[in-house]
Amino acid sequence: MTLLMTHTAAAFDPDALTTLKKSVSEWNTMRLEKPGKYIDLYKAQLENANLTGANLSRTLLVRAELSGSTLNIADMKASNLMMAYIQRANLKNTDLSNAYLVKANLKKSFMKGANFSCANLHGANMRWAILENANFSMADMANTILFEANLENTNLKGTNLKGALFIEQANLSGAMLSNNTILPSGEKASLSWCARHNAKFTNEAERSITYDTPPAVELVENENPPRPSPAGSTMLPQTERKKQESLIAGDVESWNKMRNLNPEVSVTLKEEKLENSHLKGVNLQQAVLAGSSFEGASLDNANMAGADLNAANFHKADMKSAQLQGANLHGANLDRAFLKGANLSKANLSNAVLYGAILDGANLSGANLEGASLFDADLEGANLQGTNLKGTNITDTNFKNATLSPQTVLPSGINATSGWATLKDAIFVNKTQ
Question: Quick one: 209 and 293 in the same domain?
Answer without folding.
Answer: no
